[in-house]
Structures are given as structure tokens and as C-alpha cells.
Amino acid sequence: MRFTMAAVLLGFTATAWAADVGEVKVARGAAHLERGAERLPVRVGMPVQQADKLVTGADGTVGVTFTDNSLLSVGPNSVLAIDQYVFDSTTHAGKFDSTLSKGTLAVISGKIVKQSPDAMHVRTPSAIMGVRGTEFIVKVD
After folding, report:
1. CA dist 120 to 63, 76, 108, Å?
2. pTM attached to this predicted model
3. pLDDT attached to residue 8
4. N or C, which end of the chain has less CB nearby within 10 Å?
């Protein structure tokens, strides 16, 4: 019985750990992260998970490093959703889809794009951008 309970608890821990896809490295000004029904103030060291939404205020910026070493910088007055993020650290295969509803986003792509140049997409209200290079900036008015 104890072994079964310990295995179940370890399973929950592994599931929670596996959900972390990145980490906040820079946080300035007004910014929060929406995770389900929660609205969490952004802070350096905070994990980022698939389906999270980063929201910045007029003076807010957030920098996130993902597990494939992609770097995303969300500018002031922005809303960025992490729609899908899957990364295999052994093969570097994966998929990275996000939606920028408004604001600005600067990106330096990581190992996912180096492995599969068509594996990263940024959606905006008027377009879908497939990432082929390593650095880019997107602005949505």
C-alpha cells in the first residue's frame, strides 16, 4: 500500500515537472501570467508551462528561456499565449506554436528550429508566421 501511494505521488510530481517548458529570466514593470483560472504575478525564476498566457502592462516586459534554448522577449502592452510546446532533448525534435494577440515579441529560436525549420509558428490576429530564421520581431497593433 505504501509503495503504491509513493508511486502515485511520484507520478504527480513527474507530471507537474514535465509541464514546465521554460523559465522567466527577466521581469520588469507590470506583468502577469494567466494559467487556467489563475492570474499570477510574473517573477524571475517562475516556470512557464504550455497553455500559459503572458500579459504585460504599459511598462512591462518579460523574457523567457525555453528548454530548447529559444529566447522570447515580450514587450509592453502585449498578450502572448504558449499554444503548444513539445521538445525532445535527445533528438531536438519538437513543435513550438504561440499566439501574439497584441503587442511586440522578439525571438531568438532554439534547437527546435535548428532541427526542423518549420516547427515554430507565431499566430497573430491577421497572419500566421512560420519561422525559418533564427531571430525575428513581431508587432501587432
Report:
1. 18, 23, 11
2. 0.83
3. 43
4. N
The C-alpha cell 526542423 sits at 116
The segments of the chain whose pLDDT lies below 50 read: 2-18
Q: Where are the domains of the chain?
A: 21-140
The single-letter DSSP state of residue 19 is: T
What phi and psi values does residue 30 have, to the nearest 5 degrees? -75, 120
DSSP string for residues in 117-140: TTSEEEE-SS-EEE--SSEEEEEE
- State the pLDDT at residue 81: 98
CA 138 to chain centre: 15
- The SS3 call for residue 36 is coil
Q: Which three cell numbers stand for residue 17?
A: 515537472
State residue 6's pLDDT score.
44
CATH architecture of the domain 21-140 equals Sandwich (2.60)
Number of C-beta neighbours around residue 95 at 10 A? 15
